[in-house]
Amino acid sequence: MEFTFNAFYTLIAAVIVLLLGRFLVNNIEFLKKYNIPEPVAGGLVAAVISLLVHNLWGYSITTSSELQTSFMLIFFASIGLSANFAKLREGGIGLVIFLVCVASFIVVQNFVGMSLATLLGIDPLIGLIAGSITLTGGHGTAGAWGEILEVEHGIQGALALGMASATFGLIIGGLIGGPLARLLIKKYALATARADLQDKDHNQHTAEQEGQEFVPFEYPHQVRLITADNAITTLGMFAACLAFAEFMTGFSKGTWFELPTFVWTLGGGVILRNVLEGVFKVSIFDRAIDVFGNASLSLYLAMALLSLKLWQLADLAGPLVVILGAQTITMALYAAFVTFRVMGKNYDAAVLSAGHCGFGMGATPTAVANMQAITNMYGPSHKAFLIVPLCGAFFVDLINATVIQMILKFVA
Fold first, then answer.
1. Are 220 and 296 in contact, with CB atoms under 8 Å apart?
2. Alpha carbons 44 and 152: distance in angstroms, whole number
3. Mean pLDDT by 10 residues, the chain (412 residues)
4. Nearest Cα to 44, choosing from 142, 160, 156?
5. For a designed S-S bond to 131, which of 113, 163, 207, 280 qualifies (C-beta 3.0 to 4.6 A apart)?
6. Is the pTM of this model over 0.85?
7. What is the C-alpha separation between 288 and 227, in angstroms, rounded?
8. Where does the chain cross the membrane (predicted)?
9. 3-class DSSP assignment, residue 61
């Protein structure tokens, strides 16, 4: 028997999941150490409970898809609204080169996933899910594409597969980045470990300040002071982004430039932000965007995980482990032999390689954490803390969406 939660019950359940996740992350060192998001921690527990209830008594629940989709779109709008072209230009040629590395790896990541899926006798699109959709894209992108693959391409359990793969990537991205960078630094004698604890504390503070400046999503728990006026103005911008996305989704349907709604939402945010700032000289209040964006992502993930049907994944567990293991090896080799060398084969390049492992397998906060682990030990890397957050928080989503869309046009 299946129960359907309306919008109110869905929101209540999502908040309960978030509170559970917060309790787990605050009290389990493993979850805290590897930056597992609270909605993922609580949501996976809820999904396991749902599995037990289904297997024992045959009950399952479905959450409000309309409310869930709305929160997802608000999150992607917040990414777009955070993209300030004036800051993006500061990245210079290094940012462009790094973007080429990232774009190339997205293609490699999907090739590995889809090739292995074909060899293992499962749908190649499952390999795409265990590729850049979830590993480079993270939980937010996994949820967005999971819904599309389930509805439009008939991949049962795509959302559950996506969340499982994204969680795996988040953990692995935090595990391999630091050790890889330390290995490169020692092998090529790029820097000496700093023994002065005061210097290490100072470097950590500097890194956090730089990361915070360019990545508003890096510190979701930091206090943000906003007013009612700021909140109302920001909500109006979100509404404009969603309205633009709805119009463009319908307008582009069946054309060569057809894109998923969440990509149009992100693009709408980029356009709106930079037109308001560059043309009309309007001051954008980033703290309000940050608050609404993080809250929307947390609620969306909680709702998505609440409705996971893990029993649909039993037959895919083995192949998924094989694909994700291969993706881990591919990421480490690419960062060591491509990213590191292309970015200059120096200390900054080693730190950038750690960052690439972080968001290539997990998320931007994981990338920043990887880099801080290195800079705390060996000293600051201003170049890395400028490039990685800019790329990981904004450009990578646009590049990833474009690559995935092209693949789906040829494969699906």
1. no
2. 25
3. 89 95 90 73 88 91 87 88 74 87 96 96 94 90 88 87 86 87 94 61 42 42 77 96 96 86 88 93 88 88 81 77 95 97 95 92 78 83 80 80 90 72
4. 160
5. 113
6. no
7. 9
8. 6-25, 37-57, 69-86, 93-112, 159-185, 231-251, 257-276, 288-311, 317-337, 384-408
9. strand
